[in-house]
User: Fold this.
Amino acid sequence: MIEERVSTHIYRQKQMLTKEELEARESLCVHEQPPYCNAACPLKLDVKAMTAAIAAGDFDRALGLYEKITPFPHLLAAACEAPCEAECKLCGLGEGVSVRALESAAVTWGTKAKGRSLLRKKPTKIGIFGADLMTVFLAGELAKKRYTVSLFCAQSGPEDLMARCIPDQAEAVRQAAARTLAAMDLELCWNTDPAEEYRQRGEEFRIRAAAFSVARTLYPQIAPDPAVMVSRDHGLITGPAQGVLDAAFAAKKAALSADRMAQNLDPANTRGQEGSLETRLYTSLEGVAPSRRIPITDQESAIAEARRCIQCHCDECVKGCAYLQHYQKFPRILTREIYNNVSIIMGDHMMNKPINACALCGQCKVLCPNGYDMGEICRIARENMVFTGKMPLAPHEFALMDMLFSNEEAFLARPQPGFDRCQYVFFPGCQATAVAPATVRAAYRDLCARLPGGTALMLGCCGAISHWAGRYELTDQTRSFLREALARLGDPVIIAGCPTCKQELEFTGLEVRGVWEILERIGLPETAVAKPRPVALHDACGARGDPDTQASIRRIASALGCQVADTPYSGDRAPCCGYGGLTQYTNREVAKKMTDQCLQRSDLPYLSYCMACRDRFAREGRESMHLLELVYGTAADHCPDISAKRCNRLGLKQQLEKEIWNLEVTEMDLGFTIEYTPEAEALMDDRMILKSDVAAVFQNLRRTGEAILDSETGLSVTRSRQGNVTFWVKYRETETGYRVFSAYSHRMKVVARK
Amino acid sequence: MADKNYYTIDPEGKLTCLKCRCKLQKDKAKFLYLDNGFPVELPVCPQCGFVYVPEELALGKVLAVEKALEDK
Assistant:
């Protein structure tokens, strides 16, 4: 029995990761990094969102996004140098998206949102002396910020000003920009001498800005800081700019400086990230066809061009992982939520289910361009919760009890007859003995006959179950127990039948080989008959990062006549079947999605080299076989239920003890019989109730006589508490014992109150 | 506070304790889990105190409360 957690009122705490460790891990996830186009834009236009809006035919929204970054959308759309276009990921395939043309489309066909700014007019007076592109943009930026702005120009009006500032632009663009300027909430002072106005009226304004030519007239030696567009010596906002985009960006910097100066703050401090950025985003172009730009002549062609955008993002891990798809969260977010879940002392732990649903299979680490290992986060979280007493036992108890059964009642460790110490020990693993006892028996007999120096047999669990459950103390105990048993066999070379066991048994410090490697070395047995058959090979998560095993399996499969079909998710990229990490026990819905994800890859029969995968695929109705079944010509049991799996393990141990070691096996006789209706058997498998649990309930009944009769159904009901669970059985008596109609259980204790 | 009643013996008297040969009656019982207690009313044998937890209750409300407490 494994001790249940004592109470919900436990206040023990342990930090799962230090803040630095957490941040280092989180920073590996690039999902929230800006797309390449957005990062390239110094004005921080959300190109991706704008393109998506146009692709959806929503030009109004596209214009809204565009207007956020500039007071002069017509002008910028016509004249921006568009550094975003060169960074477009599609440039690597064909032609990138024509962002500037899409901006023009937004400006042409989008309708400006009505309604006034919610900002109140600011009384701070700002004087702008002289008009060049930078100061015109600045006037627009400051008007958007609702300052009280006066612009002094030598020109006679908006059209004249635009003709001076943007002489190269088309008449329509100049007119549109002039209209925009005229409509702004600004005091426009035409036909003035800006330098003279500055000298005479400059003091009236709290903040002063000037066109660079005017500034140089006033102060010939002026050298403003280009990072903030301010000359500190003169208390003047000014600076040169080359081209429309540069002017627009310089105006943004200048407007921010004005904001800070209005608050009596140093314009150089706390400015945030300005200008274009470096992005660490990764976007796969797999499956993206090269394409050419579509000339934009109307709304339809604009929509078509916008639809070429692949909306760059990184979801490499999610694409391959049913767990991440199920929770619809990216590793960075998931990690933070798990971290918080583990850190809270009282209240609901909302992330327990996700923590326990991960297969810990390591696929994400391979798929992620930066090696984000979500499984490791979940495993650390599980261990942490076990340490602090916050981990519920219920999700893992059945699996842990199964492990104890494997390493107690069904455990076997014996040297080959005739040897005190053996050169090898065969360790088939708990799933092989549960699902395919005949195959294990054939393999052991073969290895005994063909390997020199004696081959011992060890039937048990490698400790993966407790390791996955985060029960580190139980894992340590299991490892000590296995290590001692191996020492008694003479510290042999371990021949693992399962890739996960192979990985787990590394702790022994002994040489660990896969049975496949040994079979390649000594040759396949006579039972291995080559027969041409196309198969989809499913790589086990235990063999991730083990190219030798993956190659060895393929060579054996090929020798057996298998025509192996690999998929983009073969080898190290293979998803978990749903058994790993105990997902099968903690979250059946996610486990099923994992299995489905594996089976979506091919319509062919599945060949695997982990018995858990083999069993789960068969349960989903797919023709499924384990490599050793083909090698030894022995079929595994067809979808044994949880009781049959235990029965297989125990039965194999007893059979081999009798056959190989000539031991007398005493059959356990209950002294009565138990029959089950097919419905009861199905219910019990679904509810994880073993036939041995039911037998214990009847033994209790015969001791205590405690049962009730429901006259409505005609069924009797009895119960007994075993470990942390109360099992109830609905039955009728038969001549020799009992016939079971249903069984159920609960973990709560129930007592009568007086 | 009144005890929660999640099950009614219907028809009355349909449940018989096979040990004591008497009818189960609605009586006071208590669920205990992870250091928490919940008073309830359930069918109880008046002689031996056998408390019957019906299948639908075990798989419904009891399971839901167990899960809620496990995540505390």
About this structure: The beta strands of chain B are 4-5, 15-17, 22-23, 25-33, 36-44. The CA atoms of residues 26 and 43 of chain B lie 4 Å apart. Residues 4-70 of chain B form a domain with the Ubiquitin-like (UB roll) fold (CATH 3.10.20). Chain B is about 20% helix and 35% strand.
